[in-house]
Amino acid sequence: MILRASLLLTILAAAAGASGCADCCCCTPEKPAAAAPAPASAAPKKDEGKSLFDGKTLGAWKPVDFGGEGAVKVADGSIRVEMGSTLSGIQWAGEAPPRTNYELSVEAMKVDGSDFFLGIVFPVGKEHCSFVAGGWGGGVTGLSSVDHMNASENETATDQTYKKNQWYTFRLIVTPEKIEVWWDAKQVINLELANRQISVHPAVESAVPLGLTNYQTTSLFRNIRLKKLK
Question: Is 112 contained in some domain?
Answer without folding.
Answer: yes
